[in-house]
Amino acid sequence: MNCKDFENTIHELVSRRLAGTTKQLEALEHAGHCLWCALRLDEETRLTEKLQAFAGALQLQRAPARVEEELLRAFRERNAAESAALLGIGGKRLRQGLRWGLAFAATVAAAWIMIFLWPHFHSGASDHPDRAANRRPPAASEPSRTNLAPVTRAAGPARAALKGATPQAAYAWTLERTALGESASELPADFISLGTCDDYLCMDEATLVRVSLPAEALLAFGLGTGNDYSPEGSVQADVVLGSDGVPFAIRFVD
Amino acid sequence: MMQAGDEDAFTALYRRRQGGIYRFVLEMSGSAPLAEDVTQEVFMALIRDNLGFDPARGSLAAYMFGMARHHALRFLKRDKTYVSIPQTWDGSGGGVELAPADDPQSALSRRETIHSVRQAILSLPEHYREAVVLCDLNEMSYEDTASVLGCSVGTVRSRLHRGRALLVQKLGVKVETGNEAVNPSRCLA
User: Edge-to-edge strands of the sheet including A234-241?
Assistant: First the structure.
């Protein structure tokens, strides 16, 4: 090591940054035989001692406690502000979510009403004359409140008379009369209510069935008093059955 | 943890680092009020800016000392009077307590030494003063000092060498041989 190298490493040497290294040994060896570098080392060592004394004197220096208090207060305020901001964003999102949720629920409810409840409301509302007018026009073969004769007292015997009926065909309520096998010569009478259904609520699911009944069944409805009545014969009748098989109305076909 | 709002983590960080930062500014400026202001400002910046510290660019200490330096220089440029308040940290009742000494004479000697060193440091040009304060008084590595000052390690060493040379002259520690016969020549080749 020459004097230039020594000068370059002198600060590291006096600040003990070279402690335990070969460079330290080389530097000290150089100072041992170079008077100039030995003097420089002495200068730097004395300066370092003064600086270290100065640094040591200030070692206890700290910021006053009020600084920590101020900072902690600021830290808490900032955290509170951040929490409030997060809560605000969360609340806004929650409100938006609730709005969308309510809208979705309302849509589902409306759809459910349309699908499941509307037919009942619709049929129930048919009692209203205007709504009844808007409903499908009753076919000539359809029973209506007007042509369902109030023969409730005859309903019991009539149902009993229907017990022996044999279904000839079952058709949907909306079938045309010709689909029931009615011929042009047939003269259907009005439907006679059997007293098991007083409104259209039970008629919506009804089925019209052509049956063949003993002629004496006419007697149960106060019919069959004509001259052409023969108790041994049979008569054709259209019976309106509910979805549960309960007959609602009947009409006899001549 | 501090970023997550952990008050204990922030308190621990403050208590670990505030002394060094406070002393750095005190040594740089000679003003305890400025050191207090800058220390508070550095940690307030940490609170405000969510600790925008990048470990790839240096140590946390270097980052915080860099902020302290920035704030200190800004204060010093704005108000030069900060440097000219010697009574605030010379141990003569300015609110700064120095480490205790064993006897009155050594205490006096020590006080004189401290006063002279303080004056010598404050008289250094700013860029030399920074290097001396960080490397010698705060025992910071050349690399961290370079990170704080935003310069190369070579520049730090150069500034430190020049700053110390000025301190040697100012503090009178230069060895006078007193004998012209002793005229050592250096082997700088």
Answer: A166-172, A207-214, A234-241, A247-253, A192-193
